[in-house]
Fold Phosphopantetheine attachment site.
Amino acid sequence: GEVAGVVSLLSLSGAGVGEALAAVQGLGDCAVGGRVWWVTRGAVSVGRSDASVDPVAAAVWGLGRVVALEDPRRWGGLVDLPEAVDTRTVRRLCGVLASGVEDQVAVRSSGVFVRRLVRAADDVVRRGFRLSGTVLVTGGTGALGSRVAEWAVQSGAGHVVLTSRQGERAPGAVELAERLRAAGARVTVAACDVADRAALAALLDDLTPQGDPARAVVHAAGAPHSTPLPDITPDELPHVLRAKVDGAAHLDELLPDGLDAFVVFSSIAGVWGSAGQAGYAAANAYLDGLVARRRARGHAGTAVAWGPWAGAGMAHGEQQEQLARRGLPAMAPDLAVTALQGALDRDDTAVVVADVTWDRFAASFTAMRPSPLLDEIPEARPEPAGAVNEATDGGQTGRRLAGMTPAEQDGYLLDLVRAQAAAVLGHATPDAVPADRAFQQQGFDSLTAVELRNRLTAETGLTLPTTLVFDHPTPLALAAHLRAELTGTPVGPQARERVATVDDDPIVIVGMACRLPGGVDTTDQLWDLLATGRDGISDFPLDRGWDSFLDGRLSDTSFPRQGGFVYDAGAFDAEFFGISPREALAMDPQQRLLLEVSWEAVESAGVDPSRLKGERVGVFAGASFQGYASTAMGRDQEVGGHLLTGNATSVLSGRVAYSFGFEGPAVTVDTACSSSLVALHLAAQSLR
C-alpha cells in the first residue's frame, strides 16, 4: 500500500550527515510518499540534566532544517531521544509523530520540549570580558577574520596569530599585519590549514616554547557552498564540512583546558536552515553542538550564528540583495563586532546575531510550511502565507483550468508564475517580471529557484523538481510546462516557439559546437558534464608518442600522470574539407578542430554550411600559443612546405573562411586569456 510516513532511526546507530543526506535523496529518487521524520540521540540539550551534546547528531539537525525548506511537503521533522528509552518515551515519540504540529522536538523522561528562538536577555550580569596574551584567529586574513583581529587587539590581545591557507600571500594580509602592529600588537601570520590536524598541532607547538600559548581562539574559517539537495554528491559534502567541522574539532582537541574564550563563527543557516545550503547548514549546526558539549564539560565556548555582514563574509552582491528582500539585510561590521563583544560580556553559549526585518522574514520563512520556531518573537507575526497544510488545495488550480480555453489557461498560469516569481524576488507587482526573459537574467539562483518551485508546488499540487526554473528558463516556458502537467496536453511546436528567450539585443547566438576535455564533443555533453559534476581530467592519451613511463626515481622530481585532453584530435577528415593528407599532417590540431567545430556550429543553427559559400560571413577566432610546429620539425618530406601556414596563429580564421568560401572579414585575436571574449566582441561590432 501507499507509504504513510517514514521514521529514520539511522542516527541512533551513529549515522552522520552523509548517511542522512543519502537517505533523504534516496527516498526522493524513489518517490516514497509520506512525511519523513529523523530521530537522533544527543543532538540537542534541554538543560543540565542532559548528557553531553553529540555534534555529529547536531549536524544532522542542521541538514534537516534545510530539507524542511527545500522539500516542505515531504518533511516531517526532527526528534531527539534521551540516552535511555523506555515505554513512556516511545509513547511520547508516537504522540509527536501523530500530531505533526512541532517539527523540532526533544523527548525526555521529564516531558516533551520544543525549539524556539527567543530574544537575548538584556538584564543579565555582564562580566566586562577582555582578552589578553595570545589570541588565535582562524581564517584570520579573510573579510570576517580581519575585522575580528582588529577587535581582538582593541580588546587587549597582546599577540594575534592569524591563520589561513595562504598565510602572508593572502590578499591584504601584509597590510592587515601592519595595521595591527601599528595598534601595538605582535602579529604572526601563518599559512596553516586548520583542517589539517598535523599542521595545526605544529603551529600550536611553536607557540608554547615562546611562552605564548593561545589563551583564546576565534574560529572564523569556512567555505560557502550552494547546491540543491538532490544534486549534492558524496564527494561534495566532505569538502563543505572540512574547514568548519574538522578545524573546530582539531581546535577543541589540541587547545588546552582553561581558555579565556573559544569562539566559533556559526551561521543563521544552521539555526533555521537555508535553501540550497544543506552542507553549510550542517557544518554550522555541528559548531553549535560542539560548543554545547564544551560548556557541558566546563570549558569556555561561545557559538555566534551570524547573519550577513555588509561588504564581507559569505554573501555578496545579488545574494545580499536577495537576503535583504527576504528580511535579512546585511549588518555593518562595526555593529557585528559590538554584538560579538556583548555575547562574550554575557558569557552566552549560543547566540544569533543578525539584522532581521521580522515581519518580512517570517512571511518568507513560513511561506511554504508553518513553523513555530519564531513564535516567541513578537514582531515576527508568523502567519503562514500559502503554507502547505491540510487547508491548501493545490488541485483547485486544475479545476479552474478545466473551465477555460487553452488561451485563457496560458494567461492564467503565466500570471500565476509571474506573481510567485515577483514574491520570491521581492518585487511589488508581477509586472516587474518580464514573461519572456530568462529567470537567471532576472536574479534567480539555486536558492530562489527552490523557493519558486515550492510556491508553485503549493499552488498547483504538482510534484515539481528543484531544477524546474533551469529546465523551463522563462515564465512563458514554465507556464507552458505547468499547463501540460495540469491538463495532460503536451507542449506543441507553437508553445515551444513562444517560450524561447527573447532579448533586447538584435544580435543573438543561434549555433554552438565544442571539443573539450572529458570526452565532450557536443554542447549537450558539456551540459551533462557540468550538471553531474564529473571531472574532465583523464590519463595521458596513448596516440601522441609521449613517454608515459617516466623515471620516478629521480630525486626532487614529480611527474604528472593526468591532464585535460581532447581525445581523437588526430581523427581529422581532411578529404571532407578539400585538404591533402600532407597538408593535414602539417596543420596544428587546433586548426583541424576549428574546421570541424565551425562546420558543426553552423549546422546546429539549422544552416547548411555549403549554402554560405560566397556570402559575407565573418570569422573571428580567439587563439594564443601553438606548439605543434616543434613536433612536426624535421619531417620536411612528409609535410611538404605546409608547416608555416599549418602553424601560424594568424591563419586560423583565414583557414575557416577559405575552406567554407566565406567572403567576410577573417580576424584572429590574441589577447591571452581574453582572446575569445575579444573575438566575440569584434564579431558583434562587425554585425552592427
